[in-house]
Structures are given as C-alpha cells and as structure tokens.
Amino acid sequence: MTSPPQVRTPPVALGAAGLLPQIACVMLALIEPETRGAAAIVGGGYAALILSFLGGLWWMQALLRSDGRWWPYLLAVAPSLVGWAALLLVIGGATPPAAGLMMLALALLSSPLGDREIGPLLRSVPAWRQLRLTLSGGLGALTLLLALLSGRS
User: Fold this and answer.
1) CA-CA distances (angstroms) from residue 76 to 7, 51, 96?
2) To pair with 149 at 20 to 30 A between CA atoms, which of 7, 17, 41, 139?
3) Dihedral Cα 58, 73, 108, 54, nearest 10 deg
4) For the segment 88-104, what is each residue's pLDDT rounded down to a tens digit?
5) Backbone angles phi, psi at 92, to 5 degrees
6) Helices H / strands E in the chain, number of each
7) Phi/psi at 7 (nearest 5 deg)?
C-alpha cells in the first residue's frame, strides 16, 4: 500500500508567500488609517487577481478531462468576472471599497465549492485540497478583514 502524495515544500512556501500582499494591505490599514482607501483598492486588485488564477485552475481541469460540456468553462470564467465586477463597481464609484472587498472575500471563501463541481483533481489528493482550502480561506479572511477596516472612518 502506498502513501498518498504529499505537497512539496515549494508550493507550500510560495502559496504562503502569496498571502503576503494581503497581509501588507491589512497591516497598512491598521498602522496608517489614512491609507485605508488605497490599501482597499490594492488589496481588492490582488484578491481579484487571485480569483482569476483560481478560475484558471478550473479551466485547466476541464481541459485535461477533455470536457465537452459548457458549464465547467462558464464556472471557470466566473471568478474573473466577479473580480472584474467588484473592481469596476468600486472604481466607478457605484459602491464603497468595503462592499467590493466583501464581494471578493465571499467569492474567495466560496471558491472551494467550485473545486467540488469542476472535478476530482484537487479532491483526489487530500494534502493538495488542504493547501487549497488554507490558502483560499486565508486570503478570503484577510480580504474580509480589509473590508471591515476600510469601512471604518
């Protein structure tokens, strides 16, 4: 009996490093309250970028399966569109930065549901699934915290 594959050090270390930009935005908002607006815009941009990356993972999973159905690709494009819409609403002045960040945080925190729908690639390796949940949950929580901070005057 073979043991399940383990996640190697580079993805763990680099995945954790991927949280650093959002940590920096949260720290900036905490330490320098007058920069909260800028931290919210930069943090929102980063969250939207990572959402696009997650959609790319789903797209690749569907391509690797040679999936001929349309909905996996539609689901894979949705994170990019959600990120774009959140940024557009904020930059266009239709919603405050806190609301855009809340939208992005919700998308990040719910993104593992897309993993379940798209396919077995992440489900088949528990260590990968745990890393994915940790990183998406961490970025989602940091984005939510940034939303709460940016909503304060």
Assistant:
1) 24, 10, 27
2) 17
3) 40
4) 999 999 999 999 999 99
5) -75, -5
6) 6, 0
7) -75, 130
Amino acid at 136: S
> How many CA within 13 A on the CB side of residue 55?
20
pLDDT of residue 79: 96
* Gap between the Cα atoms of 144 and 140, Å rounded: 6
pLDDT value of position 87: 96
Asked whether residue 123 carries a pLDDT value surpassing 80, the answer given is no
Question: With contact defined as beta carbons under 8 Å apart, do 61 and 121 qualify?
Answer: yes
Cα-based distances in Å from 88 to 25, 71, 84, 99: 20, 25, 6, 12
SS3 at position 71? helix
